[in-house]
Amino acid sequence: MNILMLTHEYPPYPGGVGRYCASLAEAAVRAGHQVTVLAPDHKQPQACSDQAGVKVIRFEGDVFHFKELKALRAQIKRTLAQAARPYDVVHAADWPAIVALRGVATPGSQRLATLHGTDILLIKRSIRARLARASTALASFDRYVCNSRYTQSLLQTHFPKLAPRSVVTPLGVDHSWFDTASAADQQALSARAGLQPDQLVVLTVARLDSRKGQHRTIEALARLPDALKRRVHYVCVGKEVEAGYGARLEAAAQAGQVRLTLTGRLPDGELKAAYALAHVFALTGEDVPERVEGFGLVLLEAAAQGLPAVVTQLQALPEVVANGQTGWVCATDADLTTAFQAALQQAGAAPLKAQCIAHARTFTWDRCAAQSYTSMAAQA
Known about the structure:
Blueprint: E1 2-6, H1 16-30, E2 34-40, E3 55-59, H2 69-82, E4 89-92, H3 95-100, E5 110-115, H4 118-125, H5 127-131, H6 134-138, E6 143-146, H7 149-158, E7 166-168, H8 183-193, E8 200-205, H9 214-222, H10 226-229, E9 232-237, H11 245-255, E10 259-264, H12 268-277, E11 280-283, H13 297-304, E12 309-312, H14 317-320, E13 327-330, H15 333-345, H16 350-361, H17 365-379
Parallel strand pairs: 1-2, 1-4, 2-3, 4-5, 5-6, 6-7, 8-9, 8-11, 9-10, 11-12, 12-13
């Protein structure tokens, strides 16, 4: 098939949606499809090259704002008009693309929309989305792919007439995350974070945002027995997006006598090294109105390096962590402390690492691409 993927986040822009789009596009090419991606240049004009057989058409832009909706719609129309042959599938891979396709004719093309979780609430409730008639735009698609059962449940709740046209397609993990982190990257990460050989490293990879729950991890670690806590080093990787949250984390760590390092964003090599050197991954998120943990791709990246996870019983997170096999799914704060203690006491255990890696291998982008596009191919 000839597929046009529309997105407002694409590498080099960091984040889950961009990684989803790039990995899914490459998997679709491996399956024999022709894929064109329309994406902004994120203020990096040199980021216009194609990759892994995927044709990438860039336009000038960065993080989406509703004031850019008209220009995005015009860009989509130009891309459709300039195609050498009609697209069999027009795939809106994020909510800006979904909204922009309202009123855009795609004759002869099937329309596919990816839903990541929070976007369903935005389309349903946002005042700007209502003004842009986003609900009407969402209803114009032939099929919907949801990244988790939880996301599909949101579609069923808020758009019940559309839910029968949906399918759950869990995300994949890139093969590179299974590779051994280089010695140079491990040394660089150790120096950056100030890691010592006798420390037990707890790792979180997420934006510094209170809904991601880094403060809950600190509170849980502070309740560990003193002998164990003295060996713990909590490393948080990610950009601060909530003003003052990093300072709050540092104050909480100091009060709880928990060693803490905030690294900011890391290049992929050092991120892989962080997964490799850590002993347990933490994603102890909180339920926040209008925001959704639709999947948890970092949990798969961690598992690919044999790293078990401690997570809260929040939205889609239990769909990624196999409770009791690749980690611990916790309902209460007391459960978190118990889980961290258990995880740290068996840190590096070979059977647990093997289970994590085997679990991660069941989540592939090739499967995700097949589930996303198979029924479309049958109708093309």
